[in-house]
Automatic annotation (TrEMBL):
Biological-process GO terms, alphabetical: defense response
Stretches the record annotates as Disordered: 331-400
Lineage: Eukaryota, Viridiplantae, Streptophyta, Embryophyta, Tracheophyta
Organism, as annotated: Hibiscus trionum (Flower of an hour)
Keyword tags: ATP-binding, Cell membrane, Hypersensitive response elicitation, Kinase, Membrane, Nucleotide-binding, Phosphoprotein, Plant defense, Serine/threonine-protein kinase, Transferase
Protein localization: Cell membrane
Polar residues bias spans: 364-374
Name of the protein in question: non-specific serine/threonine protein kinase
Positions of ATP binding: K82
Length: 400
């Protein structure tokens, strides 16, 4: 596997710290720094509101910089500092779970934990900074979506590699909260999984599942897990299928503003994924012309399998990675050919326009100042403030 030299996971992860007191007495992870609360204050300029990246039930995430002014001799690095709200939905257990897992796991598609602080009542996590925020933030903005087909497939592949890595241990690690807001993007749109507060050790030996209290996010949780509390790696596969469907269609998993028939994305769209013409009609129109019909149908079929009601019929994440790697290679070639064709057509149009313009210049010189909008350009009112975009900027979606 390409990432083998960059990954690190023991066959079975022992949770080194059973509680915060234990963690204080035995800092367990040599690759994770322990920060004083004052150091996190310095890194975030005293937790100034201008540095807020996101906030939610867990607390607030700030952008920060750790350098020599914070800790002498420290190489300067941009970070995201998550401060746990003691009155929020997450408590010591979820906070400690993140430290325990991310303190031991290392993979290009998992967000890196730089360090933590558990001084007094303070609970903070310090992650690498992910410059482009969450997939949710980019995918569901109404104006200026820059996620091309190839970017979406690359993000899907990165996220699949992250899950496959977690599932690949002798005792699989079940992520349990796979969704667009937990997939973070760096400056080059490389995707990494974040927020391991709900992660859990999977079954081993003769066990077929682990029984646990149902937690996660409505719309992404596998139906058998919601009904029984039985958790397996295939539960994550279902969540992956939901996110893949969101990327294909450009809609959220649950949208209450739509008709009852389309309220739940999976219930509405899954039956259409195996009907080629119907699938092509419901794909996100912002990606028109960026993919081949054959590749789109293969990705649609993959989403269909991942969303099977029967967990045994869902593919392993390792198989998902293999398929997406093959499709990405095919689609890069298609996009390159499309761009070349488009560039050729544009050049031809410019030459024709230039010739025509030289004949009209004398008689229509004043017309240049007339404001004419092409049909393809967005109307001016599309630049108006969108409350949903404002919420995104201050939402749970931007974890780092």
């Amino acid at each position: 596997m390409q990432d083998s030299l960059e990954t690190k996971v023991p066959s079975i992860i022992p949770l080194a710290a059973k509680n915060v007191k234990d963690l204080r007495q035995n800092p367990a992870y040599s690759n994770v720094d322990v920060f004083a609360y004052e150091e996190t204050r310095l890194a975030t300029k005293q937790f100034t509101p201008d540095y807020i990246l996101g906030e939610g039930g867990f607390g607030v995430v700030y952008k920060g910089v750790i350098d020599e002014t914070v800790r002498p001799g420290y190489k300067s690095i941009a970070v995201a500092v998550k401060e746990l709200n003691p009155d929020g939905f997450q408590g010591d257990r979820e906070w400690l779970t993140e430290v325990n897992y991310l303190g031991q796991l290392s993979h290009p598609n998992l967000v890196k934990l730089i360090g933590y602080c558990c001084e007094g009542d303070h609970r903070l996590l310090v992650y690498e900074y992910m410059a482009r925020g969450s997939l949710e933030r980019h995918l569901f903005r109404r104006v200026g979506c820059s996620l091309t087909w190839s970017k979406r497939m690359k993000i899907a592949l990165d996220a699949a590699k992250g899950l496959a890595f977690l599932h690949g241990a002798e005792r699989p690690i079940i992520y349990r909260d796979f969704k667009t807001s937990n997939i973070l993007l760096d400056e080059n749109f490389n995707a990494k999984l974040s927020d391991f507060g709900l992660a859990k050790d999977g079954p081993t030996g003769d066990q077929t599942h682990v029984s646990t209290r149902v937690m996660g996010t409505y719309g992404y949780a596998a139906p058998e897990y919601v009904m029984t509390g039985h958790l397996t790696a295939r539960s994550d596969v279902y969540g992956f299928g939901v996110v893949l469907l969101e990327m294909l269609i450009g809609r959220r998993a649950v949208e209450k503003c739509r008709s009852n028939r389309e309220h739940n994305l999976v219930e509405w769209a899954r039956p259409l994924l195996n009907h080629n013409k119907k699938l092509l009609r419901i794909l996100d129109p912002r990606m028109d012309g960026q993919y081949s019909a054959g590749t789109a149908m293969k990705v649609g079929n993959l989403a269909y399998q991942c969303l099977s009601q029967n967990p045994k019929e869902r593919p392993l994440m390792s198989k998902v990675v293999e398929l997406l790697e093959t499709l990405q290679t095919d689609e890069v070639s298609h996009e390159h050919a499309t761009l070349q064709t488009s560039s050729s057509h544009t050049s031809s149009k410019k030459r024709i326009s230039s010739r025509n313009g030289s004949h009209r210049e004398g008689s229509t010189h004043g017309s240049r100042s007339i404001n004419v909008r092409s049909r393809s350009a967005p109307p001016k009112d599309s630049d108006l403030y969108d409350p949903s975009l404002g919420t995104e900027e201050k939402s749970e979606s931007d974890r780092g």
